[in-house]
Amino acid sequence: MISLAGRDILHSWGKFVFTGVGLGLLIGATLTMAGVYRGMVDDAKVLLSNSGADIWVVQKDTLGPYAEPSSLRDDVYRAIRGMPGVARAANVTYLTMQVKQGGENASDVRVMVVGFEPGQPGEPGYLVAGRRITRSHYEAVADVRTGFELGERIRIRRQDYTVVGLTRRMVSSGGDPMVFIPLKDAQEAQFLKDNDAIVNERARTAANPGLNRPGVPGLLEAIQASQTTSRSVNAVLVQTQAGLSHEEVAEPIRRWKHLQAYTRAQMEEILVAKLIATSAKQIGMFLAILAVVSAAIVAFIIYTMTLGKIREIAVLKLIGTRSRTIAGMILQQALGLGFIGFVVGKISAALWAPFFPKYVLLEPGDALRGFIAVMIICTIASTLAIRAALKVDPATAIGG
Hints:
Blueprint: H1 4-11, H2 13-51, E1 55-58, E2 72-73, H3 76-81, E3 86-101, E4 107-116, E5 129-130, E6 139-143, E7 153-156, E8 159-167, E9 178-182, H4 183-191, H5 195-206, H6 219-226, E10 232-233, E11 235-240, H7 246-257, E12 260-263, H8 264-275, H9 277-307, H10 310-318, H11 323-352, H12 364-390, H13 396-399
Parallel strand pairs: 4-9, 6-8
Antiparallel strand pairs: 1-11, 1-12, 2-10, 3-4, 3-7, 3-11, 5-8, 6-9, 7-8
Helix pairs in contact: 1-11, 2-8, 2-9, 2-11, 2-12, 9-11, 9-12, 11-12
């Protein structure tokens, strides 16, 4: 049996293919938006995995350290190490900032600066080039997406750091690449005031008559010393002993240390359900709009192509062709257009995804669901053209 749809497509294949390519670019944008959301979720999960922690201990009544600010004294980890079920505990700081790259004409790179203790949770798990940090100051390990190179000098606040190692896929929940530096340096960069502020604060403290009383010797000197040292961190990363559930270890920390302790599952819930919830809703709205636009485009194209074949459809009716056959021809053309568009869209999304500034994760499951959605949209969109074709009067073939 001759395929009427196939013969019609071959008759005007150029217009049909170019139309499918245009539709494919729109489908590619839709798949990319889904990939952006998947990438955001994957960034959040990668952040948790790269930390090496089972439990995050943060300031009480906060969602820190990623979703909200958190500040702890840096000696808290000693008490946590003595808690039942704790294998290791280490301080860590996180600071998202602009890092200067280069000399006089320095450019800024947005990164998350991580302060960690070597050999403890929070350290980058692996390197792709260079070596690990071995000195206590002024060395850094950077993610390759920062664009930094081995041996390059970068400026973080008032200090210059040498990049001694490179790692990969170490990013914040927002997709910013990470730069790892020693904990003491990170504390200075995040919590210490600049020189002018310290001088002004010392002058204000010295002018306070209550601090110069004979009965409190050394109080003034202690306060001034505290202004030049940082005793704060953002979180304590805890690894639990084997065989214990994370919640078993976290609950006593909450109860007895009056701190907030989140397990990995709870932290993932915070990052996915709270931190990127608004972005997820926005992407969902955009996907819905793209689906409606795609349906409208397919409906318009198929309807226009059908109107251009009114005389041919009338001839088919005149020779006794069944309405079901005519409807099938139009449906096949709509599905063929959707198939071409999906193939072009899938290839386009795969080609331009690596060039996006944030990670785009194109999952096979999303592609399968996208293909089914495209076919359904094309089927629905073809109904307008089918109704128009079925209303054609066979006398039109004779009349004009």
